[in-house]
Amino acid sequence: MAQFGFENDIHSILKLDMPISNAPMARWQRKASSSNTSALSGLSPGKSTNVSQSSSKTPSKTPGKNKKQTPSKMGGDRFIPTRNSNQMDVASFLLTKENDCLDTNNTAGNSDNQKAWSVSLNGYNIEDAKILHLGGKPLNAPEGYQNNLKVLYSQVATPASAKKTRYISLTPDRILDAPALRNDFYLNLLDWSSRNVLAVALHNTAYLWDASQGDIVQLMKLDREEDYICSLSWTKEGSYLAIGTSDCKVQLWDVENQKRLRSMPSHTARVGSLSWNDHILSSGSRSGHIHHHDVRVADHHIFTLSGHSQEVCGLTWSPDGRYLASGGNDNLVCIWPRVTGGSNGGSNESQSVRAWSEHQGAVKALAWCPWQPNILASGGGTSDRHIRIWNVNSGSCISSIDTQSQISSLCFAPNYKELVSAHGYAHNNVVIWNYPSLTRVAELNGHDDRVLSLTMSPDCSTVATVAGDETIRMWKSFELDPVKKKAKERLVKSTNSVIHHSIR
């Protein structure tokens, strides 16, 4: 019986069936009573309520509006979540007892018994009835949760101008042996065709390497051992290869049939540079003369250009075929107009459009900009070491930079609007420059001797370099992003369809 009496007492305490006589007033009751007292104290004797409200600092209504004002709720100083009446009663009781001394005899087992009694009597744990409850360890975030605002608290701010840059490998994608390569700065011994075939001259023999399949073919070999190949140049279609030799001749070869079509003598010294413009083949000689050959006719020599006093080691036609740029060992850069007609015996001579003498060393490195046909880049030798950008139309030097190294070859990389330079003494490396700012993008090191020539692959993703260490290295540094590559292919297909439609 005593046990049932004890349970009844506990039940009566938790249920709060009758008010607690000696309990202090709850805080929300104290707040409500103080608010009512302050409101009543503001009333002056003998004056109506309306007068006191009108004299208040804050008007009860917005001036100029007759809308009914929402009455303010008094007595609430914070938000209290919705609970049932039993929980509110228990919470009120716990608030009145928050300042009482804790029972030191309360053990962990006793607290467990109280929790069991509370659940059996009230249907919930009494601890859950607390309005504010602080304690315990914080809950872990659910798996996979990500805080989207965490960047706001980062100590290192991300610059607004930072852009995602491509990855450039500093090691070559492929290395080929080039034994018996002639280590001569003034020769042009490497060229890559539009059909993805790389031609290289090793002393007196010309070899072809198919980049698609990896096959190597010996195209030709000079009859005399003392003779050597000085220059190579593919036609635009990639079917024919022109070869300049040390015995003052220019040979034309059908690559598919591996047959020599003709041998064209006209120079008095070795032919160190070649460049095609449709059916016109231009050749530069050690004598300083440039000859134009029309390969369609028997009398091939149709024009002679005399502007250099020493060997012509750089020669290239502009993409639109309007101008021929030549560089020589006399430190000159000359711009020649397009050939308009033939002549008998090559007696006619043409005057250069531009002649620049700013370089202080031999100018072998020449490159036209593919997307700006009037822009020419030139590079000087050991005494100069400068890259200069020229505007052919105005004749002015747009910009220049000292590379601190001999420049042997230049080419533009259209995939990323960049300029690539090959260097000899003293760095023996390849440098990628941003155009037109001429800031360094990357340096490709690997050759043990000076880099003599470089050439770009037909898809403009890879550059091949040949050096005095008798190696050819492939640098796959300009490969397009797959998304950009697909967009470019779609553009090319649409352009071709328009061309075919206009032809029909």
From TrEMBL:
Pfam families: WD40_CDC20-Fz. PROSITE patterns: WD_REPEATS_1, WD_REPEATS_2, WD_REPEATS_REGION. It comes from Pleuronectes platessa (European plaice). The keyword Metal-binding does not apply. Residues 27-83 are annotated as: Disordered. Belongs to the WD repeat CDC20/Fizzy family. WD repeats lie at residues 222-263, 305-336, 381-400, 444-476. Keywords: Repeat, WD repeat. Residues 176-475 form the CDC20/Fizzy WD40 domain. GO terms for molecular function: anaphase-promoting complex binding; ubiquitin ligase activator activity. This is CDC20/Fizzy WD40 domain-containing protein.
